[in-house]
Amino acid sequence: MERWMLWFLAGNLSLIALALIFIVPRKVMRYRLSDLWRIVAKYRFYIALLLAIMAFHIFEVRVLDAPASALMSGILGDDGLAPLFHYMENGLAASMSSYWSMPAVVFFVSFYFLFHLFLLWFIPLLFLLNNKTWHTRMALLAYPVMYAMSLPFYLFLPVTNVYTYRGIPSPVEMVFPGVEKFYYSVTTVDNCFPSLHVGVAFVILGIVLLSDNRRLKPIAIAYAILMSVTVIFLSIHWVMDVLGGIAVAAATLAICYALTNPKSRILRMIRPTRRGEKLLRGVCAEVDGAVNAEITARGLPAKTVVVGSIAKKTHLRDSLDLDLFLQFPKETPREKLGEWGIDIGKTVLPAWELRYAEHPYVAGSYKGLEVDIVPCYEIEHSMERISAVDRTPLHTHYVRTHLRKGQRDEVRLLKQFLKGIGAYGAETSIGGFSGYLCELLILRYGSFDRLLAAASLEWTAHSTTIKLVDGASPDFDDPLTFIDPVDPNRNVAAALSEYNFELFRRAAAAYLTEPALDFFLPKSLEPWPLETIRDSLSERGTGFVGARMAKPEGIVSDTLYPQARKGARNLSTFLENHGFEVAACDFHVDDTRGEVTFVAELATACLPETKIHEGPPSKTKAHAERFFARWENDPRTVGGPYEKGGRYYVEVMREYPCAKGLLDNKGGEINFGKNLRQEARERGLEILDLQELLEERYASFWTRILEKKEVWEF
């Protein structure tokens, strides 16, 4: 074995030892062989691509380079572009050998030969083992992309290296005799522009700066700077080679980031296309023109204004909803406002239906575009509003005048992220983030990433209040408070449920730990088999009772879901008041069957037959006498009354020891909400035990309750 090989082996072993101590994450040291195999399988495409590029590079050097160099030497000369570079930089790189000293040459050659080659294989391997999906993909993809960009220059724009062009000894050969024979088996003297040594150094710098490995960052910065100096000082590369290497590195990082970063990938999916935007503007103009024609024909004192995400240019590619508001003067009678708005909507939209907010409006479709035509009053300040929708044009104006163009994509990222985790939409059936709230959050925090950082680290339920405009506003007892900048008396986040507030915080923390495309892509939860559900419920060791009723006819979700949540709370309270310990209470809406089912999880479905009833203190004679009179001869009394610790007690039979019996007899007393309670009284309440709840119709409900994975982990 030659001496340079021993130096190379000893140097790499030393650097590996230092890396294991100071750089490699501790989790890597705990990997088993099966863990390593799973990682290799996960990134097999990128590993295969990297190996293929390495093999092709050897083929290029040994087969393609010679005929290509011969061809280009007839055009550019034997040294290619080297004379031009020498002239352009006024001999700077060529003059470096005059500053050589043996200690300096040994230092820079050791860095060039040992440290660089070590990082060349160590960095991709480190990111592979660290297994942070998009960082790993970027690290493994960078070398093939950079080589592919450099290859045309190596074949058709050859540049002889500096020391060969000058006819001076190789500094690497001076320090490690014999190494050039190996070195030029994997490269050539004219593969100089762009410098891959410098390119690799800056690519590694970019990848490391995007990662969460803090200890590696100062090393990467020093490596990139020192490599740029080294190749010039050792008369290996021209200054133009270094600049070319930096340019190729920048292009490589941009391409790899776009191909692997979850945000870049999802934006390509959700950002509206130019063609789509052109078509959208055309359809919007048609609808607006048709509505204005109707206004003119009827002689109405109204004007149209487009509101919502389309007007604010924060809409997603596949979520096209046109909100067209008809603004009437404030003196317009309310019944006329609704009547005129509905008539115009019915006339303009070929397929329509009536929907209801504070007053009815028309919703329908027009050439594939979902359209809402909503009448409202024209106001200049929120204090003038007559109905809640009157504020909406003010919201649109505020966002359009404050949201920067570059922040529109940040809003889109947030909306799609919330869709992916199931927390987008202020409808009561969802209890999530509205589009307007998303826009205001980006205005407050500036970007998607900064919002996630704040949510995961700073937000606390019922304690977080956000304002964009200074001024007094009421206190709100909601999980999140965001004061409306156009109406200080309104919380924009009022619809956000505590569950979705906490879900967003968990998702934000998980995404920042390891960004992935899965967070942005909504997934449906496949129902578990009933046998799996039965086994999982059995392991919990708890009891269950259900109450099923018909879903009221014609009830809309914005009315149904608040009542159902209230009903679940009241069912829980009712059971607790009768001695049952309630672990959880939820509900399931089956639109297909037209049913609403409430399910309570109890510490036990049946309590002991008797219970100890606490009486008054023994020193309160009048109360004690009444207690004795009440219980002494009661047929339910099985023991006592008796005194214990200065207080009277009596042991009595429970009227309803089992939850099912209790609900069978007294379930009608529970207030499930106005419409649901009426439905239960008129059509009855069916009480179910666990066996009756273990039906296929409830498989999705049980799966949602029992699934421990977060939605982005499915």
Description of the structure:
The chain is α+β, with helices and mostly antiparallel strands. The protein has four domains: 3-14 and 44-260; 275-400, Beta Polymerase, domain 2 (2-Layer Sandwich); 403-520, Orthogonal Bundle (Poly(a)-polymerase, middle domain); 536-609 and 654-713, Alpha-Beta Plaits. 54% of the residues lie in helices and 14% in strands. Strands 1-2-5-4-3 form a five-stranded mixed beta sheet, with helices on both faces. It has a four-stranded antiparallel beta sheet with strand order 10-11-9-15. The protein starts with a helix and ends in an 8-residue tail after the last helix. The relative contact order is 0.06.
- The side-by-side strand order for the widest beta sheet comes to 1-2-5-4-3
Mean pLDDT: 93
Taking pLDDT < 50 over at least 5 consecutive residues as the criterion, the unreliable ranges are none
Return the domain count. Answer: 4
Structure summary:
The chain is built from 29 helices and 15 strands.
Write the layout of secondary structure elements.
Layout: H1 3-22, H2 26-29, H3 33-42, H4 44-76, H5 82-88, H6 102-130, H7 133-156, H8 162-166, H9 171-175, H10 179-183, H11 196-210, H12 216-233, H13 239-260, H14 262-270, H15 274-298, E1 303-307, H16 308-312, E2 321-328, H17 334-348, E3 351-356, E4 360-366, E5 369-377, H18 392-402, H19 408-421, H20 435-445, H21 448-457, E6 464-466, E7 480-484, E8 487-491, H22 498-513, H23 530-540, E9 543-550, H24 557-577, E10 582-590, E11 595-602, E12 610-617, H25 621-631, E13 637-644, E14 647-653, H26 659-666, H27 674-683, E15 686-689, H28 690-693, H29 699-706
Parallel strand pairs: 2-5, 6-7
Antiparallel strand pairs: 1-2, 3-4, 4-5, 7-8, 9-11, 9-15, 10-11, 12-14, 13-14
Helix pairs in contact: 1-6, 4-7, 6-7, 6-12, 7-11, 7-13, 11-12, 11-13, 13-14, 14-19, 15-17, 19-20, 20-21, 21-22, 23-29
